[in-house]
Design goal:
Blueprint lengths: L14 H9 L7 H12 L2 H9 L3 H17 L6 H7 L5 H9 L7 H13 L3 H10 L1 H8 L5 H16 L5 H11 L5 H11 L4 H14 L5 H7 L5 H14 L5 H7 L5 H13 L3 H10 L5 H18 L10
Helix pairs in contact: 4-6, 5-6, 6-8, 7-8, 7-10, 8-11, 10-11, 11-12, 11-13, 12-13, 13-15, 14-15, 15-17, 16-17, 17-19, 18-19
Length: 320
C-alpha cells in the first residue's frame, strides 16, 4: 500500500532521468514517472520551470510536446500549469506550443495570459496560436459563462485584432474566425466584410467563422464556396458546412469526395460526420471505397461514430 511518505516529492524527482524518459520516442512512462508528473502539477511547478530552463530550445519543445500528449492520455495529469510557465519561454516555437496546449484549459490565468500573447507577442505564429486558443473562451462568453469584465476584455482584444488594418492578414483572419461563435450583429458584419476582402487569409477566416457560428444563415455562402478554385477555401467551406450541421449541405459535400485535393476530401468526410443523417451515412459509405487509404480509413472511422450517434441504442437492424 502506498503511503504519503512513499510518494515522490518535487524535491526528490530526478529531472534528468525524467526528461530523458519523456524524450525517448514511443517510450512508456512507469508508475513512478506518472506520480512524479502529478506532483509537479501541484507543488513542483517552480522546480520544473527551473529544470526546463537548463535544456536547449529543442529539448524544451520536445519535453513540453510529450507532456501535452501525456495529459491527453492520463486523466490524472494536467499539463496546463506547465504550458502557462512556458508562455514566457525565450523560444517562439515553445511559446506557440504552450499556447496551443492551453486550448482546453479553463482557468482564468490562461485567459488573461493568452490575451496578452495574442495582442503583444513579437512572433506571428505565437500570436496565431494564442488567438486560436481563445476560441473556446468566445464560446463560453456566448453562453454567459464568463464574468462581464472578462467577456468585455476578451472581445475587445479579438475585435481590435480583426479590425486593425495594420495587423497581418493571417492574424486578422484568425481573430475573425475566433469571434465567429459570438451572435452579435457587428460580428455578422465583420464576417461579411472579411469574406468580401481580396486577401485569401481573411476569406478563410470568415468561412471558418461561419462554421463556428453554426448559423444556417451562412449556408448558401458556404455551399457556393465549396466550388471555389482554391483548395484551402473548399476545405474551409467543407468545415463550415459540417459545423452548421444542415442536411442540405450533403450533396455539395458528397461532390467534394471526388475533389483532386486529398485535404479537401478529408475535410468533406469530417463534415459529413457532423451531419447525423441517413444521407450523410450513404455518402460516407461511398467514401470508404476511395482510392486513397487515408480517406478510406477516415470515412470508416467517421461512419462508425456517426452511426452510433444516429442510433445510440442500436435499435436499427434489431430483429423482433
Amino acid at each position: 500500500m502506498e503511503t504519503a511518505s512513499s510518494r515522490p516529492t518535487s524535491a526528490s524527482i530526478d529531472f534528468e532521468r525524467l526528461f530523458a524518459a519523456l524524450m525517448e520516442p514511443g517510450a512508456l512512462l512507469n508508475d513512478e514517472d506518472v506520480e512524479a508528473l502529478i506532483v509537479l502539477k501541484s507543488d513542483g511547478r517552480r522546480q520544473l520551470r527551473t529544470a526546463l530552463s537548463g535544456l536547449d530550445a529543442g529539448a524544451r519543445f520536445g519535453v513540453l510536446a510529450r507532456l501535452i500528449d501525456l495529459a491527453e492520455a492520463q486523466v490524472r495529469f494536467d499539463a496546463g500549469s506547465v504550458c502557462l510557465d512556458c508562455l514566457q519561454d525565450p523560444d517562439a516555437s515553445v511559446r506557440a506550443l504552450a499556447a496551443n496546449g492551453l486550448r482546453e484549459v479553463e482557468g482564468r490565468e490562461a485567459l488573461i495570459r493568452l490575451q496578452q500573447l495574442a495582442a503583444d507577442d513579437p512572433d506571428e505564429l505565437v500570436r496565431a496560436e494564442a488567438i486560436g486558443a481563445l476560441r473556446p473562451w468566445v464560446l463560453r462568453a456566448e453562453f454567459g459563462q464568463l464574468r462581464p469584465d472578462d467577456r468585455s476584455a476578451l472581445i475587445a482584444v479579438l475585435r481590435e485584432l480583426a479590425e486593425d488594418g495594420g495587423v497581418e492578414a493571417a492574424l486578422r483572419g484568425s481573430a475573425v474566425e475566433s469571434l465567429g461563435a459570438l451572435s452579435e450583429e457587428w460580428v455578422r458584419e465583420l464576417i461579411h466584410e472579411s469574406f468580401a476582402a481580396e486577401d485569401q487569409r481573411l476569406r478563410l477566416g470568415a468561412l471558418r467563422a461561419m462554421g463556428w457560428s453554426a448559423d444556417p444563415y451562412w449556408l448558401p455562402t458556404v455551399l457556393d464556396a465549396t466550388a471555389a478554385l482554391d483548395d484551402e477555401e473548399r476545405a474551409a467551406a467543407a468545415f463550415a458546412a459540417g459545423e452548421i450541421e444542415d442536411e442540405d449541405a450533403v450533396p455539395s459535400l458528397r461532390d467534394l469526395l471526388e475533389d483532386e485535393s486529398v485535404d479537401v476530401v478529408l475535410a468533406a468526410v469530417a463534415a459529413l460526420g457532423e451531419i447525423v443523417s441517413p444521407l450523410a451515412l450513404e455518402a460516407l459509405a461511398a467514401a470508404s471505397t476511395h482510392p486513397e487509404a487515408e480517406v478510406r480509413d477516415a470515412a470508416r472511422a467517421v461512419s462508425e461514430r456517426t452511426a452510433i450517434l444516429a442510433d445510440p441504442l442500436g435499435v436499427t437492424g434489431m430483429q423482433y
